[in-house]
Design a protein that fits this description.
The relative contact order is 0.16. The chain has two domains: about 190 residues, no CATH class; about 80 residues, no CATH class. It has about 325 residues and is mainly α. It is globular. This is Sugar phosphate transporter domain-containing protein. It is found in: Membrane. It is a multi-pass membrane protein. Its main location: membrane.
């Protein structure tokens, strides 16, 4: 039986700083690579199996509220794009350098802006465009340090951008407009994603999964990464339900910058002055973007209060006029 220290050393001896350079599913992919697992789509499939098992347990305990009535088309679309998003992200991490992968992530922001305009006629104000441009430039300077071109990797990365943008838009829209909770939406879409990933495995994964060394340590690492994958997907769904698709991307980029700066100040890593300056530029753009959102919220609440006051005054005047 392996001790907790041996399991911990398995992660740490592969250089924790490399994990800190990546976030979310990137770190899970790195953990799987430490176990010598070179099947990215199968890894996504295992993560979704773990997710389905955990959600089924919560549902059996009646911890997931009943879902509101909704046509199956949006749910199927979300399940499909989630499988493409997760599977292609892991394949992209296998064939691309971190820098090229980050460039693809940066391209998600303008894709969301364009998709929301075409889908919902939602426009982004010019100050927000400036803020998002500053954020994108800062993140690019901070993270894109090792661009290496690979044709297959580039095709996979470009194919990942649109599903990633659509999945964020749908997660946010279905929760805010259709009153779905994050767990209820995961419960509805995870089986669809599993089916799609099962079809993708023979198309994108190399052969040899059955001959992999499925010992206790390797299997434990993969299953643990699946639990973390569930928690990350849940937290992302909660964030998308509370904010918007663009704000969620900005939040993810904020985490990337904080990890980079934390790696520098805590572990004395030296990403270079250029990367550090880029991180601070990105955080400045994020701060301005947050300020603009808060300002818009105040303006909206200010417009709603006078309308409520007018309605109350009209009711009071009607009551007064009816009195004998």
């Amino acid at each position: 039986m392996l001790s907790s220290r041996e399991i911990l050393n398995f992660f740490v001896n592969k250089d924790i700083r490399k994990l800190l350079k990546r976030k979310g599913s990137d770190a899970n992919e790195t953990g799987a690579k430490n176990a010598g697992f070179q099947f990215p789509v199968l890894l996504s499939f295992i993560h979704y199996v773990v997710t389905l098992g955990l959600i089924a347990t919560l549902n059996a305990l009646s911890l997931i509220p009943p879902s509101p009535p909704l046509k199956s088309t949006p749910l199927f679309t979300l399940g499909l794009v989630m499988s493409l998003c997760t599977g292609l992200a892991n394949v992209s991490l296998k064939y691309n350098s971190v820098g090229f992968y980050q460039m693809a992530k940066i391209a998600v922001t303008p894709t969301i802006v364009l998709a929301e305009y075409l889908w919902y006629k939602k426009k982004v104000s010019f100050p927000k465009v400036v803020a998002l441009t500053v954020v994108s430039i800062g993140v690019a300077i901070a993270t894109v340090t090792d661009l290496q071109f690979n044709l297959l990797g580039a095709i996979v990365a470009m194919s990942w951008i649109i599903p990633s943008a659509i999945s964020k838009i749908l997660w946010s829209s279905l929760q805010q407009r259709e009153n779905y909770t994050a767990l209820a939406l995961m419960w509805k879409t995870t089986p669809i994603s599993l089916l799609c990933l099962l079809i993708m495995i023979p198309l994108l994964d190399p052969p040899g999964a059955f001959s992999y060394n499925w010992n206790f340590l390797n299997t434990s690492m993969i299953l643990i990464s699946g639990v973390f994958g569930f928690l990350l997907q849940w937290s992302a769904a909660l964030a998308l339900g509370a904010t918007s698709a663009i704000s969620h991307v900005v939040l993810g980029q904020f985490k990337t910058c904080v990890l980079l700066l934390g790696n520098y100040y805590i572990f004395s890593s030296n990403p270079g002055k250029t990367s550090i300056c880029g991180a601070f530029v990105a955080i400045a753009g994020m701060s301005y973007y947050t300020y603009l959102n808060l300002k818009n919220e105040k303006l909206k609440s200010g417009k709603e209060h006078p309308q409520k006051d007018d309605q109350e005054n009209n009711k009071n005047s009607d009551t007064f006029n009816r009195e004998p």
